[in-house]
Amino acid sequence: MRARLLFVGDIHLGRAPARIPPALEDYGITARSCGPAAAWEHTVRHAVREVPDAVVLAGDVVESDNARFEAYRHLARGVEQLVAAGIAVCGVTGNHDVEALPRLARAVDAFRLLGAHGTWSTHTITRDGHPLLRIAGWSFPRRVHPDRLPLDTFPAAGDVPVIGVAHCDLDAAESPYAPVSRHALARTGAAGWFLGHVHSPDLVPGPQPIGYLGSLVGLDPTEAGRRGPWWVEVGEDGRITRLEHLPLAPLRWEAIDVAVDADLDPDDLLDFLGKAVRERATALGAEELAEVRVLGVRIRLAGRVRAHRRLATQLAELTREPLVIPLGERAAFLDRVVDDTAPAVELGALAEGGDPLALLVRDLLALEARDERGVELIRAAAGRFQAVANRPQFAPCGTGWHPDDEAIRTLLLRAGRRALESLLAQRAAPKGSQA
Question: Which one of 3.60.21.10, 3.30.470.20, 2.60.40.10, 3.40.50.150 gives the CATH number of domain 3-245?
Answer without folding.
Answer: 3.60.21.10
